[in-house]
């Protein structure tokens, strides 16, 4: 199954990954806008131009737009982009959204940006160093000189690489509907694993499966990612552990 299909199928349920999606968006938006404003040039701090290259349904794009960023949102999944548009409209927010693979994102935009963000462990959907390097080069290409690249990723150095593992989100509510979600991981080799994502809904007396979808990840460490950022033309690259719920990798286009 392709990454595009995985997120197309997950788009309607993705908010349920978070116990409270709106609260999580606010926390992430508050943290990211502080980091962006600290990192861009003074002229750009009030209303920075931000390209979200893995926008999904808008978990970072929407709160950043609410903070006054000029947001361009791209994602591989057409269904995720459709939902992002609906969520932005419902909140009265302006987000220029479209479909693009992060490995070719430069061709999908016509301007340069003060910041590029790639959050929620999106980079490791690219399964080789070469593909990640291509994506990072695209991020560098669309940034102004001195612009900042911000990526959040899972800390794979701390992940137990047992052959299989179960990761339960528990129950989630949407109005009067109740869902439960989980992931099952199966390691294909030491560096790559397959995720099966399952969503069930409580029916009158039982649970009914609403979604079962799969995707693959590359368990690349943050040290190697920082090396690839440097090779792509970023400087002062480093890892930050106190921004949001995942490690953040940051570097500047100079």
Average pLDDT taken over every residue: 97
The spatial strand order of the largest sheet comes to: 3-2-1-4-5-11-10
Count of spatially separate domains: 2
Which segments are poorly predicted (pLDDT under 50) over 5 or more consecutive residues?
Answer: none
Q: Strand-and-helix sequence, N→C?
A: HHEHEHEEHEEEEEHEE
Strand content: 35-45%
Largest sheet: 7 strands, mixed
Form type: globular
The CATH topology annotation of the largest domain reads as Rossmann fold
Number of helices: 6
Q: Distance between the terminal alpha carbons, to the nearest Å?
A: 38 Å
Helix-residue proportion? 25-40%
Report the strand count.
11
CA-based gyration radius: 18 Å
CATH architecture of the largest domain: 3-Layer(aba) Sandwich
CATH class of the largest domain: Alpha Beta
Q: Structural class, judged by helices and strands?
A: alpha/beta
The CATH homologous superfamily of the largest domain: Vaccinia Virus protein VP39
Your description of this structure?
By secondary structure, the chain is α/β, with parallel strands linked by helices. It folds into two domains: 3-155 and 221-253, Vaccinia Virus protein VP39 (Rossmann fold), CATH 3.40.50.150; 157-218, Nuclear Transport Factor 2, Chain: A, CATH 3.10.450. The chain has six helices and eleven strands. The chain has helices at residues 3-10, 21-39, 61-66, 78-91, 129-142, 222-231; strands at residues 49-52, 70-75, 95-99, 113-118, 143-152, 164-174, 177-187, 192-202, 207-218, 234-240, 248-253. The strands form two sheets. It has a seven-stranded mixed sheet with strand order 3-2-1-4-5-11-10, sandwiched between helices. Helix 5 (129-142) crosses helix 6. The longest helix is centred in the first third of the chain and has 19 residues, at 21-39. It is globular. The N and C termini lie far apart (38 Å).
């Amino acid at each position: 199954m392709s990454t595009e299909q995985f997120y197309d199928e997950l788009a309607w349920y993705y908010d349920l990954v978070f116990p409270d999606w709106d609260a999580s968006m606010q926390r992430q938006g508050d943290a990211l806008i502080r980091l962006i404003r600290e990192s861009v040039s003074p002229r750009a701090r009030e209303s920075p131009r931000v390209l979200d290259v893995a926008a999904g349904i808008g978990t970072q794009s929407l709160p950043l737009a609410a903070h006054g960023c000029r947001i361009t949102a791209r994602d591989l999944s057409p269904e995720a982009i459709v939902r992002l548009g609906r969520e932005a409209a419902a909140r009265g927010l302006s987000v220029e959204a479209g479909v693009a693979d992060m490995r070719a994102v430069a061709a999908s935009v016509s301007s340069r940006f003060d910041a590029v963000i790639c959050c929620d462990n999106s980079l490791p959907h690219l399964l080789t160093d070469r593909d990640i390097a291509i994506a990072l080069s695209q991020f560098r290409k669309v940034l102004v000189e001195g612009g900042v690249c911000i990526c959040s990723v899972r800390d794979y150095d701390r992940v137990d690489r047992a052959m299989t593992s179960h990761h339960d989100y528990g129950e989630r509510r949407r109005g009067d509907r109740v869902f439960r979600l989980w992931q099952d991981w199966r390691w294909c080799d030491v560096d790559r694993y397959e995720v099966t994502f399952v969503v069930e809904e409580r029916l009158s007396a039982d649970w009914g499966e609403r979604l079962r979808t799969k995707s693959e990840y590359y368990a690349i460490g943050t040290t190697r990612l920082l090396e690839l950022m440097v090779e792509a033309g970023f400087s002062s690259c480093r890892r930050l552990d106190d921004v949001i719920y995942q490690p953040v990798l940051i570097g500047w286009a100079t």
